[in-house]
Write a structure and sequence with these properties.
Order of helices and strands: HEEEEHEHEE
CATH topology: Aminopeptidase
Shape: globular
CATH architecture: 3-Layer(aba) Sandwich
CATH superfamily: Gcn5-related N-acetyltransferase (GNAT)
Structural class: alpha+beta
Oligomer: single chain
CATH class: Alpha Beta
Distance between the termini: 11 Å
Strand order of the largest sheet: 1-2-3-4-5-7-6
Radius of gyration: 15 Å
Number of strands: 7
Number of helices: 3
Helix content: 10-25%
Strand content: 35-45%
Bound molecules: coenzyme A
Largest sheet: 7 strands, mixed
């Protein structure tokens, strides 16, 4: 076990419940992709093979955030598809390692329950907290995606991260 995994907090990912939705509003930082502030009208699908999301629950059974994903293709055949994950941790739960632990956990789910070879994440070049959390979760920084994401009225550079089945 790596030192980071040894000190990781216990985290559970479970399907979203209607009572979670008001707690998963986002919109508090410029990197937050989950705004505007209104809660989602219904729980997200939790089937890994579709776009979906799971609620992140901490060791005290508190709703700590949300981890979501969609699918991207690097070629026309299904074997070249990969999951792209995103995360939002409630502000009062940040800095405890939950972001890294939840991203590590969802990667385990993808490799255990789908045949995907690669799980990706993409974040703003200035989002150092997410870059650190991804690196602690075992992702490799692959490069800068210039002008890839429209945010805050401009095209912004991002950083692409990925973890392969063979990396674990
Ligand atoms: C990014 C986010 C998911 C991280 O979640 P978290 O539970 O706080 O993450 P962790 O505690 O696992 O790790 C955070 C790491 O970033 C570091 N960090 C936190 N804030 C930081 C900052 N402003 N600048 C630099 N590093 C920072 C922490 O020290 C920690 O690094 P360490 O492992 O070296 O100690 C959370 O901040 C969040 O939800 N932000 C808003 C939404 C968002 O940006 N999502 C990602 C979109 S791509």
């Amino acid at each position: 076990m790596t030192p980071a995994a040894e000190s990781a907090p216990a985290v559970t990912l479970r399907p979203q419940r209607p009572s979670d939705l008001p707690l998963l509003v986002g919109g508090d930082t410029k990197f937050d992709d989950f705004g505007p502030l209104a809660p989602s009208p219904h729980p997200a699908p939790s089937r890994l093979d579709d776009a979906g999301a799971l609620t992140v629950v901490d060791e005290r059974d508190q709703v700590a955030g949300e981890i979501s994903w969609h699918w991207r293709g690097w070629g026309p055949n299904a074997g070249s598809r990969c999951a792209m994950i995103g995360i939002w941790v409630r502000p009062e739960h940040r800095g405890r390692g939950l972001g890294a632990a939840a991203q590590r956990r969802v990667v385990e789910l993808f490799f255990a329950h789908t045949n995907v070879n690669r799980v990706e994440a993409h974040t703003d070049v200035e989002n150092v907290a997410e870059q650190r959390a991804l690196e602690r979760a075992g992702f490799t920084r692959e490069g800068v995606t210039r002008g890839a994401q429209w945010r805050d009225g401009a095209y912004r550079d991002g950083v692409l991260y990925a973890i392969l089945r063979s990396d674990r």
